[in-house]
Structures are given as C-alpha cells and as structure tokens.
Amino acid sequence: MPAPTLSRVQLFAPPDEAEQIARLVAAIIQAESVVRPMTRLDQIETLRYDFTTNGIGLEVMADSRERVPSLLQFDTSDLDPTLERVLAAGFSARTWPREGQTEDVVVEVGELTVCITRSG
Q1: 75 lies in which domain range?
Q2: How many domains does the chain fold into?
Q3: 78-to-2, 27, 85, 86, 117 alpha-carbon distances in Å
Q4: Confidence band (pLDDT; 50, 70, 90) for 34?
Q5: Which residues pair with 39 in a beta bridge?
Q6: What are residue 69's phi and psi, to 5 degrees?
Q7: Which of these, 20, 41, 109, 111, has the minimum number of CB atoms within 10 Å of its CB?
C-alpha cells in the first residue's frame, strides 16, 4: 500500500507578514502566488497567497490567529542560485557553514523560520 502524500499546507501569518512570506516563497520556488481575496468563517475579509510546488499546495493567509508551523523547509540541489534570488528579493539570510560551501540558508519573517537546504 502506498504511503500517504502531503498535499496541502495552510500557513497563518499576521497581515503585515503574510505578503513578505509569499514574496520569500516565490523567490525560493521561482513561482508567483495566486492571490485570492477570501472571507473567513468569522466574516473577516483577508488575502490568501496560493502556491503549488511538487504537487503540494501551500496557502499563506493573512490572519492574526496563532500560527503553525513555525518552520518551513525547502530542499534544493540549486542552493546557490536560490540564495541569490532570496537576497535579490530583499531578504536577509544566515548561511551555514560560515566558510566553505553553503549547505543551509535560514531566513526569518516575524516568528516564521524558513530553512533552505542543499539536497543530493
């Protein structure tokens, strides 16, 4: 029997951070979000930034509710150009190790940590 597959993640972020997170994700995966206005169950109007990467839907929603997860990780074999895109999009990033070939990049937007890791 095949293992279940992750197909969708909803990320709730404060309204002033949701757009920044969407810009960061767009820089990492090289895809623009589809921005959708939405009305929550409590009738509050907000925006949702939709992405699909490798069959997984990621929805970044402007919402002041408690947020989970606090970490998003992306794996890529093209870490160096990905880091260049992140920096060009205006984000600060920490790299590891400090010397030699970069293996991990960490970007923080508010309380969310985004890790980009060299794969393969």
Answers
A1: 8-118
A2: 1
A3: 29, 13, 11, 13, 9
A4: very high
A5: 45
A6: -80, 170
A7: 41
